[in-house]
Amino acid sequence: MKHLIDILRAEHHLESNGYKALLECDDDSVVAYLHEQAREVAQGVFARGIFVRGLVELTNVCRNDCYYCGIRNSNTALERYMLTTEQVLQSCQQGYELGFRTFVLQGGELPRDKAQWLVELVSEIRQRWSDCAITLSLGEWPREVYVALRKAGADRYLLRHESHNAEHYAKLHPAEMSLENRLQCLTWLKELGYQVGTGIMTGSPWQSLDNIVEDIEFIERFKPQMIGLGPFVPQHDTPLGKFATGSAELTCRLYSIFRLMFPNALIPSTTALNTIDVKGRIKGIMAGANVVMPNLSPANVRGNYALYDGKAITNAEAAEGIEQLETQLSTIGYHIDWGRGDHKQCTIHNA
After folding, report:
1. Contact 205, 68 (CB under 8 A)
2. Is residue 118 predicted with pLDDT exceeding 70?
3. Fewer CB atoms < 10 Å away: N or C end of the chain?
4. At 114, is the secondary structure helix, strand, or coil?
5. Pairing, β 102-107 against β 226-231
6. Arithmetic mean of pLDDT, 245-256
7. pLDDT of 228 higher than 70
8. Positions of E strands within the chain
């Protein structure tokens, strides 16, 4: 099995059966070798620096009704909020003073009439902090909105496709949402010059290993600059709230596969992973991840951005806990890299 890992590291590609074999493998020594090789590759490109992004969760208002998501439109148990422009700018100012040079604006999919507000917000952030990267994770919009956001100063856009298998996608989303439109949005984003990210939930309901292989091969073809992977974590007020939590081990295995496939990619060790495993963030980094996203949102709204149950929102998950994060990283020989970490600016270091 280790020869498959060697091939993936050298050629950045395997056949479908090779990916499936790595996903199915139950030999701990092989899995350890996979993580070791991914870690070596990540260190060769990024040394031992881990990029930090300041996460601002703009709103838990969402026009969609995805069956797995706690901020789905029909969840009446949730207290809704929407940050004001001033609150967002204050969060960014706090982050800038702490040293953050990338802001990630994330939120539910707002009504279409909020597009201009988003454009003006991005423009204001760009004017105030011209040396910072702006990443958006705000869902599906018409092409002209992506154009306007790009012109306003957005650099990156994360839009996880969640499943490349149409049948599986339909089990996770209402009928008015389509995989076809999600993939069209990703195509537009790439055409418009964004650094684009996509990804999946690992262990989502009804997901098979064949589905994951299909996702791996889509991501291989799409060639994103960012890859967002997190385990499925149920939220009790959703139709899928009684399904089992996804696997931290499988998530880390995918981190390693994608690191060997794309040595320069920006791969976050996600909050969802750290939510289901207290050592999840560190395990993700040891598997090849190179980004973490502490929360800059006002403390009083963080609990309402309830994508899933038990979401970690304090300590090293929060911007004010940055010293705890630095300490955590130092225990494994890593450190915070305060740079923007643009994909195109990554350089090769000696491992």
Report:
1. yes
2. yes
3. C
4. helix
5. unpaired
6. 97
7. yes
8. 49-52, 54-59, 102-107, 133-137, 156-158, 195-202, 226-231, 291-292, 335-337
Phi, psi angles (nearest 5°) of residue 247: -100, 125
Q: Yes or no: say if 80 and 304 are a contact pair by the CB < 8 Å rule.
A: yes
For residue 318, the 8-state DSSP code is B
Question: Residues 150-197: pLDDT tens digits?
Answer: 999 999 999 999 999 999 999 999 999 999 999 999 999 999 999 999
Distances (CA, A) of 257 to 55, 118, 252, 330: 26, 35, 9, 25
| Of 232, 302, 233, 230, nearest in space to 268 by CA | 230
Tell me which residue of 196, 138, 139, 201 sits closest to 168, measured CA to CA: 201
What does the angle CA 225 – CA 228 – CA 230 come to, to the nearest 5 degrees?
165
pLDDT in tens, 285-342: 999 999 999 999 998 999 899 899 888 766 667 777 899 999 999 999 999 999 988 7
Q: Are 307 and 75 in contact (CB under 8 A)?
A: no
Cβ contacts of residue 170 below 8 Å, gap of 6+?
A: 179
For residue 221, the one-letter residue type is: R
Distance of alpha carbon 58 from the chain centroid: 16
| Beta strands 133-137; 335-337: pairing state | unpaired
Nearest to 234 by CA among 203, 280, 195, 190: 203
Distance separating alpha carbons of residues 12 and 8, to the nearest angstrom: 5
**For the chain, percent of residues with pLDDT exceeding 70:** 96
In this structure, what DSSP letter does residue 245 have? P
SS3 of 348, please?
Answer: coil
| Residue 87 CB partners (closer than 8 Å, separation 6+) | 298
